[in-house]
């Protein structure tokens, strides 16, 4: 093993500093928020619905706005039926089963890193979360495209296949549809920023300590 490789190995075998451990511990608060707030929100506005229909997508369920006059999720599914789109059913979303589990496991791994972690363990957590985040975004976009491109041919109202907006405001037929991240997505973004900052801090500190020892 060459001297440079040995140096890198010593850096990644270094225990993480106490301030980084406190940062990671604080980051768990953002994971708790994920269970309380929607990951994504959508609204549907038209002349028929000047007060838009609203849909919130949580990590484990769908939630339409409910008032004394209407249930928005039921209204959205009724409108989808007319254009041949299959209804939004929680039973069709396998993600609602595995996403809470993944978040829980991630929290346990972070706790383990806080208690016993080395720099290499923090690298592993960061890579794991990055993969989870990118896969979740791809999965959500794939879901949207699947709903809009698999329309029943005998639908009462014919619309060309479409992809509901992933982000922003788009007009489809006579509806303006808005799609934006919810509070849980911002919480995950904060968690990612803390992970990245903690990892950078840990690597710089470990590099400095190894360099001092070698001097």
Can you offer a commentary on this structure?
The chain is 57% helix and 12% strand. It is α+β, with helices and mostly antiparallel strands and 215 residues long. The chain has one domain (17-209). A five-stranded antiparallel sheet has the order 3-2-1-5-4. Helix 1 (3-12) packs across helix 6 and helix 2 (18-34) packs antiparallel against helix 6. The longest helix has 32 residues, at 183-214. The radius of gyration is 23 Å and the shape is elongated. The model has no long low-confidence stretch (mean pLDDT 88).
Average pLDDT across residues?
88
Count of separate structural domains: 1
Tally the helices: 6
Query: Regions with pLDDT < 50 over 5+ consecutive residues?
Result: none
From N to C, what is the helix and strand string? HHEEEHHHEEH
Briefly characterize the structure.
With 215 residues, this protein is an alpha+beta fold.
Please outline the helices and strands.
Layout: H1 3-12, H2 18-34, E1 40-45, E2 53-57, E3 62-64, H3 72-82, H4 95-116, H5 119-149, E4 168-172, E5 175-181, H6 183-214
Helix pairs in contact: 1-6, 2-4, 2-6, 4-5, 5-6
